[in-house]
Amino acid sequence: MAGKLKSVLRIPKLRLAAKAIVIALGLYFLPVWAAGILAALLYFIPTAFSFSFIGTFVSFAVLMGSLFSVHPAAFAAVLSGILFFLLLGVKNVVFLHRSPVFFFLCGVLTLLGLWEFFSGIVSLPILAMIVFIVCRDAFNQFAPSPAGGAGRTSLLAAVVALLVAELSWGVFYLNIPVWWASVAVFMVFAGVLNAIVKYLRGTLYKTNAPFWATALAIFSATILLLVSF
After folding, report:
1. For labeling, which of 15, 56, 164, 211 is most exposed (least CB within 10 Å)?
2. H helices then E strands: how many in the chain?
3. What is the per-residue pLDDT for 111?
4. How far apart are CA 49 and CA 79, in angstroms?
5. CA-CA distance, 81 to 13, in Å (whole number)?
6. Spatial contact of 53 and 87, defined as CB atoms under 8 Å apart
7. Longest pairwise C-alpha distance within the chain
């Protein structure tokens, strides 16, 4: 039995799935601080590429820790396990196409951060920090800038974080349902993120990214107008 288990755990995706299950169970049954230590140990083993996505891991830990400190639930445990699996898969180069997986993870973390902000679980500075470090990881790893390097991508990540923070602050006072507010701000975020990634890759005007960014912004404004009255 032990030999079969070792054989199964040699398969990279199954090994990551085992780690994800451990994290989900840890968050559900252990104190938040203990689950955080466990997640850090599992994340840094192996250490390769650990610091390339350290910001995303910190965002994941903050969001999951904040969520479980207020709303411990089986669904949240399952969600944390799935997100941790995706993060480890990108970090450990297990997925063949890492870029789409990471941007999906980036979007889910941002949407979760927005929901937690509008629910009163995290503060606006925490939300801005999460958006900044997740976007910085995304730009540095999957849309590197040949001119300006890390400084340029950090500046663009700060612009996105500031935009999300200001828009979230304004929407917060509209007193609309949490999920509608989260989705409305997220659509603007998604459009801007897509446009910046295309810009860094030098393909902004060769794609329909400006169209999608504008369309998502208009759709977001429409949602806000409809649910505000």
Report:
1. 211
2. 10, 0
3. 94
4. 23
5. 13
6. yes
7. 63
The percent of residues in the chain predicted with pLDDT above 90, rounded, is 29
Cα separation, 54 vs 128, in Å, equals: 16
CB 228 within 8 A of CB 176: yes
Tally Cβ neighbours within 10 Å of residue 174.
14
Residue 214's CB is within 10 A of a number of other CB atoms, namely 12
pLDDT tens by residue, 148-179: 566 788 889 999 999 999 999 989 888 888 99
Q: Which residues lie below 8 Å from residue 212, measured CB to CB, with a gap of 6+?
A: 191, 194, 195
For residue 57, is pLDDT > 60? yes
Which is nearest to 69 in space by CA: 36, 108, 105, 44?
36
Helix, strand, coil share (%) of the chain residues, nearest 5 = 80, 0, 20
The two three-digit tokens of residue 84, written as one number? 């941790």
102-106, 142-146, 217-221: which has the minimum mean pLDDT? 142-146
CA–CA distance, 28 with 35 (Å, rounded to integer): 9
For residue 8, is pLDDT > 60? no
Q: E strands of the chain, at which residues?
A: none
Which of 109, 122, 119 has its CA nearest to residue 177? Answer: 119
pTM: 0.88
The DSSP output letter for 177 is: -
Residue 175 has what DSSP assignment? -
**Measured at the alpha carbon of residue 10, what is the angle toward residues 9 and 13, in degrees to the nearest 5?**
70
pLDDT at position 4 is: 46
Say whether pLDDT at 11 is over 90. Answer: no
